[in-house]
Design brief:
heterotrimer; A mainly alpha (293); B alpha/beta (428); C mainly alpha (333); A: 293 residues; mainly alpha; MetI-like fold; globular; C: 333 residues; two-stranded antiparallel sheet; 13 helices; Bact_solute-bd_prot1 (chain B); Carbohydrate ABC transporter substrate-binding protein (chain B); SBP (chain B)
């Protein structure tokens, strides 16, 4: 088995031919210009987060005339609990979701991509159909279900389903990635006497690092930004998550604390951005760079 | 396989229906502390004030603990609808506008007569209290009093060299003329008025010709002719530059937060709005905004204004603790200890005793608001007729058809006819 | 799924049967494939039980968590259900009402326009940037992160305000137009352009599919490129005959998921239009209309019926996608 895998690994030891594009100033100018357009709204938000609330809309210039971190202090402490409580709640949910999705979706994906069984196509279709209904018509029955389980105001409704592979998106994603891997890997491993669980765990999973990393990053971001279900299932202020807490700054009728809202939005963005920065290394670990012992 | 599948599905659906309809879970605490859930919408400042009021209530009523739940306006009503549907509603629910009627008429709210020995409505402003009463059943208790009028920025008037109108006699023609004058004289980007179209403005305007939006028995009262006249006026104003161009008006309509309005940015002379938003706009604009009586149809006639409950406290019909819930509501509206924390956040207190007890604590902005309510209290017309079931749709219908008028995609007359048709369909 | 050339990328111009660097089993496709076909039927039997073990969490999830809210929504689509009162069976009334529902027609129009325009644009941009960023650029992680950032923001409360800062009357875009002496308008709030700004918003978040493309690009064994280079294939030939064919499963994935996602577009339309779908229903997305009927008008029965119509439409299109995929998607298995 080892030979097989190593042989495949050897296939890719270095990036393919580069053609001096690395230092082409024109290309960089283009990339940077596009980048500025891309993040302009973010820069505006960053700039607004250091302006006093009253002048954010009166003086919409990008460069703040005054620089004041007061919004951060105010935003951090303005809500029922200090803001790190909400960060922690969101983090707990995110980590739970990531672990759940990685395990359950990869198991299901392996079955769909590599195993022959009765009803495979039908089940695969059923799986895709489950993500085609909008959440708004499902939320009431879901709420009934979870309230019967006495799970309202716990993180369970948000985490447990992930361990049951309810995010069909990621199953499909991993199926697609597994199917790009040559089946001969499995064949060879099978000849070496590996069972399905070994093939899954020792061969397919390591080779799917980019897909797993993508799943982790996306799960993190989605659960971090998911507003609607967190709003509905968590009513206790101490359990509020970042997006729900952020809405607490908004009041359609009265005053909205825009300064603290933008400041805490930046704070709330930092962890997902950090997670992405940390995770992107694995996103691009191709078939060759994966180490298998 | 198939047969079991069908049976299982049937069973699940059956269970779903049962769960949706049958009674909820059983907490069975007769003795021991009573736990109440109290929900409201709004921002964190309101939450802080409310939490302090809750603490005062808990101090005065040992044995009752209250958990506050809040969210922003849109999210709030999604959550309430979901939890009511799943039979898990909070005990005390804050509502507004036509929502108490939507919920009350469908049996989700407690008839407050059942808990009248714990909840004294006698001292509250009658007009506001009537906003929570439908077909003789009291479902809601006013949190405070509010009125719809014209917010005016004297600084913009002065800069344009236009003198402030006499709001005891002014008419819509004056409103139109003044707005055009200001726009003409003011720097670019500043407008005499913001486009005044809203459901509340139509209510006000049609009350001046003795219509109003709805009849007491839940029909549409406003006539297509009245709506036509209104849209002819707003179209004239827009074409004259007295109000902003259509795109700007729509842009502002989608972002109604006080800070984002032209008034809140000091860029308009007049804006129709609720008195409880005045303070936020004063803070945002940094200008000494004042509130004026609405223009009337002809000079000196009653201006169609009314005092309205800014919000209403209601009690879930499924609460296990109606007495304690009623005590909480009573405390919130009748006890100065609660008033001192909430101040004018939910409108000027509807109980005059509470208002007098706390008026010393008002800041400049709150004083202006309270003075305006005092001043127009003697001039208001009959209480507002709250819309029937289905009338929560009126706002979105008006916004949709209104933007057709703004972009000249419909004539005022056609749009008015459509408005009447669609609202009639929504409330039937 | 595709029978010919399992391990070698399709593409007549190149012969990759024996890559020079690695005589790995992966390259010996024909015998392997033959072996497998012969064993398929026995394997099917043996795989069955194992497969259900692998699928156990998913099956439990289906039965316990997923199915019954779906079943409930199907049931509710045949009822008059206000959320606040028990549902009342009305048979096909909701579906009959759809036939005469003009707003449903405009919602379908908006949604289809959006899907047809924004999905291809977003995917093309994502693929182009992924290619550009895949290799050979200095500061690659930096660019990747910058381009990905908007995707993190897209669902947040602040996006509505930020979008106005871009395309509102006083927005950046109009400042830019002013440089050329053009007086801009409020793009977000004009019935003719509002949907366009939402398309731009969706395209702006191309970071998500881009990341998936990047990951997919790294799955392509380098030996193919090396072999092709040895065979004298140019840059375009390598892109055309190696990258694209081997990336097709990922392109397909992005296409299917972005299409399903675009049909369900809600948050962005909701926050940018303030929940109204305005102006004049120009941004009345299907799910927005459904939400408005369900939670705004307390007509959850009708909303459920709308949801099931959406499901049928999306499922049909997805099925079509899968059928067409047989013609252009190449798998390694």
């Amino acid at each position: 088995m080892t030979d097989t895998v190593l042989a495949t690994q050897a296939v890719r030891e270095e990036s393919p031919p580069r053609r001096g594009g690395g230092r082409n100033p024109l290309r960089h100018a283009l990339l940077i210009a596009l980048g500025v357009v891309m993040i302009y709204p973010l820069l505006w938000m960053l700039s607004s987060s250091v302006k006093p609330t009253e002048i954010i809309f009166r003086d919409p210039s990008l460069w703040p005339s005054s620089f004041d971190l007061g919004n951060y202090v105010e935003g951090w402490t303005a809500l029922g609990a200090p803001f790190h409580q909400y960060l922690l709640n969101s983090a707990i949910i995110a980590v739970g979701c990531i672990v759940g999705n990685l395990l359950s979706c990869s198991l299901a994906a392996y079955a769909f991509a590599r195993l022959e069984f009765r009803g495979r196509k039908l089940m695969f279709a059923a799986m895709l159909v489950t993500i085609m209904l909008p959440i708004h018509v499902l939320i009431v029955p879901q709420y009934v279900l979870f309230s019967q389980l006495d799970w309202i105001n716990t993180f369970l409704p948000l985490i447990v389903p992930k361990f049951l592979a309810t995010d069909a998106f990621f199953i499909f994603l991993m199926v697609q990635f597994i199917r790009t891997l040559p089946i001969e890997l499995d064949e060879a491993a099978r000849i070496d006497g590996c069972g399905h669980f070994r093939i899954y765990w020792r061969i397919i999973m390591p080779l799917c690092t980019p897909a797993l990393a993508t799943t982790a990053v996306f799960t993190f971001i989605w659960s971090w930004n998911d507003f609607f279900s967190q709003l509905i299932f968590l009513t206790d202020q101490d359990l509020y998550t970042v997006p729900v807490a952020l809405r607490s700054f908004v009041d359609g009728q009265g005053a909205t604390s825009w300064g603290p809202l933008f400041a805490m939005s930046i704070v709330g963005l930092a962890p997902i951005f950090g997670f992405f920065l940390a995770g992107q290394r694995y996103l691009t670990q191709g078939i060759a760079t994966t180490g298998i012992k | 396989m198939r047969a079991t599948g069908t049976r299982a599905a049937a069973g699940l659906i059956g269970a779903a229906v049962l769960l949706l309809t049958a009674c909820g879970g059983g907490s069975d605490s007769q003795d021991g502390p009573v736990e109440l859930r109290f929900s409201w919408w709004g921002n964190e400042q309101r939450a802080q004030a409310t939490e302090r009021a809750i603490a005062a209530f808990e101090a005065a009523h040992p044995g009752i603990t209250v958990t506050g739940e809040y969210a922003d306006f849109n999210a709030y009503f999604d959550r309430i609808a979901t939890s009511v549907a799943a039979n898990d509603a909070p005990d005390v629910i804050t509502m507004g506008g036509a929502y108490p009627r939507e919920y009350g008429d469908r049996g989700a709210l407690l008839d407050l007569a059942e808990v009248s020995q714990y909840l004294d409505l006698g001292k509250l402003d009658e007009a506001a209290t009537s906003n929570g009463r439908f077909d003789g059943v009291q479902y809601g208790v006013p949190t405070g009093v509010n009125s719809y009028g014209v917010v005016v920025n004297p600084a913009v008037f002065e800069a344009a060299g236009v003198s402030l109108p006499d709001d005891t006699t002014w008419t819509w023609a004056d409103f139109e003329r003044i707005a055009a004058q200001i726009s003409a004289a003011a720097p670019e980007g500043t407008y005499g008025a913001e486009d005044p179209t809203s459901a509340d403005a139509l209510d006000l305007y049609s009350r001046q010709s003795n219509e109003g939006l709805y009849t007491p028995d839940g029909k549409l009262a406003i006539s297509a002719a009245t709506v036509t006249t209104w849209w002819e006026m707003t179209s004239r104003m827009r074409n004259a530059g007295a109000t902003p161009p259509a795109t700007l008006t729509v842009e502002l309509g989608g972002q109604p937060a006080p800070e984002q309005t032209l008034m809140g940015r000091g860029l308009s002379g007049m804006r129709l709005d609720w008195s409880n938003r005045l303070a936020a706009m004063r803070t945002a604009s940094g200008a000494p905004l004042v509130m004026m009586r609405a223009p009337s149809e002809s000079a000196g006639r009653q201006p169609g204004m009314w005092l309205q409950a800014s919000q209403l406290y209601t009690i879930s019909s499924r609460t296990e603790h109606p007495e304690e819930a009623a005590q909480l509501v009573d405390f919130l509206v009748n006890d100065p200890a609660a008033g001192r924390e909430i101040l004018t956040d939910r409108g000027i207190p509807a109980n005059p005793e509470v208002r007098d007890a706390i008026s010393g604590a008002f800041n400049e902005n709150q004083k202006v608001e309270a003075e305006f309510i005092d001043r127009i209290s003697e001039q208001v017309g009959p209480p507002l007729v709250v819309g029937p079931v289905g009338s929560t749709d009126t706002r979105s219908i008006l916004e949709r058809i209104g933007s057709d008028v703004l972009f000249d995609r419909a004539t005022p007359a056609d749009a008015a006819a459509r408005f009447v048709d669609e609202v009639t369909a929504a409330i039937s | 799924m595709t029978e010919p050339d399992r391990s070698a990328p399709p593409g007549g111009a190149l012969s990759l049967a024996s890559p020079p660097t690695a005589p790995a089993p992966a390259a010996e496709a024909p015998p392997a494939a033959r072996r497998r076909r012969g064993r398929r039927s026995q394997r099917a039997v043996r795989d069955g039980r194992v497969a259900y073990l692998f699928l156990a969490p998913w099956i439990v999830g289906m039965v316990v968590v997923t199915i019954w809210p779906i079943a409930a929504s199907l049931y509710l689509s045949f009822t008059d259900y206000s959320l606040l009162r028990a549902p009342r069976w009305v048979g096909l009334d909701n579906f009959a009402e759809m036939l005469g529902d003009e707003r449903l027609v405009s919602a379908l129009g908006v949604t289809f326009t959006y899907v047809v325009v924004s999905v291809p644009l977003q995917l093309a941009l994502a693929l182009a940037l992924a290619m550009l960023l895949d290799r050979g650029v200095r500061g690659l992680p930096f660019y990747r992160s910058v381009y990905y950032l908007p995707s993190l923001l897209a669902g947040s409360v602040s996006i509505a305000i930020l979008w106005r800062q871009m395309f509102g009357t006083d927005g950046l875009f109009n400042d830019f137009l002013a440089l050329f002496g053009v007086q801009g308008i409020g793009w977000v709030s004009h019935p003719d352009f509002a949907l366009g700004t939402l398309v731009v918003l969706n395209v702006w978040t191309f970071g998500a599919p881009m990341v998936i493309f990047l990951a997919g690009l790294r799955q392509i064994p380098v030996m193919y490129y090396e072999a092709a280079t040895v065979d004298g294939a140019g840059r375009w030939a390598r892109f055309r005959h190696i990258t694209i064919p081997l990336l097709t499963p990922i392109i397909f994935f992005n296409l299917v998921l972005q299409t399903i996602g675009a049909f369900q577009t809600f948050t962005q339309a909701f926050v940018v239009s303030g929940g109204t779908g305005g102006p004049s229903d120009a941004t009345l997305f299907y799910t927005l209309y459904l939400y408005e009927r369900g939670f705004g008008s307390f007509d959850m029965g009708y909303a459920s019926a709308l949801a099931w119509l959406l499901l049928v439409i999306v499922a049909a299109l997805t099925g079509l996608n899968f059928l067409l995929a047989k013609r252009w998607v190449f798998y390694g298995d």
